Hints:
Keywords: DNA-binding, Sigma factor, Transcription, Transcription regulation. By secondary structure, the protein is mainly α. The protein is 73% helix and 0% strand.
Amino acid sequence: MAGLEDVRGFLEGDADAFRRIVERESPALYRLAVWLTHDPAAAQDLVQEVFVRAWRHRRQLRTPERLTPWLHAILRRAHLDWRRRGWRREVPIADAPEHLERLTLRHGRVAPPAEDQVARDADGAALCEALDCLSPLDQAILALRYGDDLAVHEIARRLNLRPGAVATRIHRSLAKLRRHLAEDAGTGGATERAQRRNR
């Protein structure tokens, strides 16, 4: 979390304070954006868009202590806009897990934990497709839980939700992913569809 002095400076239009906020908040926003887009280049674009919007609308931040949830809300809205406008620049599906793994390792995090088989057992294409069936909010929650390895209460704080709501959304999202991946495996999956397209 950015220091309150920097947040107050940012609210008053201090460019140096804003730069320090960008430096501190960018890594977490970028990791979340990669999870949401499956595309590191698009994630960089989204994070840049978040900070452009934040600067333009900084007077809308009423409580300096709520900077991080406010930035995450801007990212979720920017992601929705990205999806509506079709900004998606897909990385080759086979490369997606490698990109995510490099990203999480670079930031000192680990891939989804061993306690959950969904991310571990699915191939990259099927997992990316399954994640797309979730709402942007549910994708963000899973990204923070498994991409950033945050506890439920910290996710709730960042997204301005109740911890119980976060836990419920995680449970339901994982069940939905499991169902989607099981159905996908039963119909030949993403790999077979990709092979059919290449014929």
